[in-house]
Design brief:
By secondary structure, this protein is α/β, with parallel strands linked by helices. It has twelve helices and seven strands. It is about 50% helix and about 15% strand.
Length: about 280
């Protein structure tokens, strides 16, 4: 039997721990067993029960206080994660070998771990060797995504993780419950964006012709290949959380022994197509 894992990623402050806590509670209400592993050696507190905590192996504070290392916060975190990569046996012993596990890995927020360091890719490869089906869940804070060029930066960060890890990835806009009604309406266009229109809406934001061409090329790449889309995550909206979870489950085929279900919005789209075909036949 396969095992299942979400790598919960995103910049610092994007709501990773809140997402894990909310999903554990939501899954519990559905009688699903979901466990959490904390992989942030600099974490200070979280309000969910942990199956394993990397701080039992190594902590950033201990590394920074070591006179022989003299690392700052970022260097200390990188050292901790590389030490973790050399001691995956600790994680294997902690996880055990329970079939049908569903585990959320609450990851650190430093973007370099997903761009030019091999640690997270090594973790993915190791989990796959342990028969985990792994999905990346990349979070961005919706409060900082209501302007087009901040949005493009968020898209590029998500895309970097997607390319580096080479696993299915679901991108999520968090903290939707903290937006005012006007911001919620404004952010709808960023969930499934038309990048070309976005550029046309703010032509005065880029004064340099060189960077305008670069931004247009990036927007074209994202738009032409439909590489990044976002799902909204409002922790007060049960239906919205269900849709996010369905997309993730579908990407890793969770519960493949049961009837495979597509995410709700995909089902709605197919039902609409079937209705159109059926009505067309009646018209004929």
């Amino acid at each position: 039997m396969p095992r299942y894992a979400q790598l919960v990623m995103g910049p610092a402050g994007s709501g990773k721990s809140t997402y894990c806590s909310t999903l554990v509670q939501h899954a519990g209400a559905m009688n699903r067993s979901v466990q959490v592993v904390n992989l942030d050696p600099a974490a200070e507190h979280f309000d969910y029960p942990v199956m394993a905590d990397i701080r039992e192996l190594i902590q950033v504070d201990d590394v920074m206080e070591d006179d022989s290392l003299r690392f700052g916060p970022n260097g200390g975190l990188v050292f901790c994660m590389e030490y973790f990569a050399n001691n995956f046996h600790w994680l294997e012993e902690t996880l055990g070998h329970v079939e049908d596990d569903y585990i959320l890995f609450d990851c650190p927020g430093q973007i370099e771990l997903y761009t030019h360091l091999p640690v997270m890719k090594q973790l993915v490869d190791q989990l796959q060797q342990w028969e985990f089906r792994v999905c990346g869940v990349f979070l961005v804070d919706s409060q900082f995504m209501v302007e087009s060029f901040k949005f493009i930066s968020g898209v590029m960060a998500a895309l970097s993780a997607m390319v580096s890890l080479e696993i299915p990835q679901i991108n999520v806009m968090t903290k939707m419950d903290l937006l005012n009604p006007k911001a919620k309406k404004e952010i709808e266009k960023y969930l499934d964006p038309d990048m070309y229109s976005m550029m046309e809406d703010s032509p005065d934001s880029i004064r340099s012709k060189k960077f305008k061409k670069l931004t247009q090329a990036i927007c074209g790449l994202i738009d032409d290949y439909s590489m990044v889309r976002f799902l909204p995550f409002d922790r007060t909206d049960e239906e919205g959380m269900n849709i996010v979870l369905q997309h993730i489950d579908f990407s890793i085929q969770y519960g493949e022994d049961f009837e495979v279900k597509e995410p709700k919005d995909l089902q709605d789209e197919e039902e609409l197509n079937y209705d159109d075909i059926f009505e067309g036949k009646l018209d004929n």
